[in-house]
Request: fold
Amino acid sequence: MKNVIWLVMALVGSLGIVEAQESWFNLSFPGGTPKEFVEAVNQAEAKSIRDPKPINLLVPRDLADVKIPAMELRAVDQRSLFQSLAMLSVSSADGLEWRNSSDNVWVLSRRADDRRTQAFYVGNLLQKFKIEDITTAIETTWKLGTHNLNAAPELRYHKDTQLLIARAYMGQLTTMSDVISQLRLALEQPSEKKPADKKAP
Reply:
């Protein structure tokens, strides 16, 4: 009796594997637009699957030309492909999101931009530094930070008011404030006086 049970279980397991294999396909995508990506997936499925279920992707107009990266995948199915893309998008710098609305319908969107805008007065710093020196110091600290952000920080200098305006994430704004504070310390340091020339007797 135990042998019969194991035989039935083995048959069920093998049928499940065969069924899963029937939905597998290989994907070789050189990179391109969302439309080109969907066409590549549907073509790959048509080559390997008996009755493929075409994938549908809803893309807003502003993302129609966004670049989908190249990929070489073997023995994947539709769901595992898009679930993997969704997992990668969580920490991607492009801010793209892949969401599933039904079995074969996916929605491509972009994560909300939660950057804030803040202005810093730097007129006093310009007594000692050039504006390029200040912005370079700030951007250098930003580059040392995290890279998995939705959007890059932006810096603008308003010459008339001597305001340095940043659109960035809270952590970056805090870092920027720290940099400016450190530069202000440089202004407080007493300048070294050159020794007076001794007059000849």
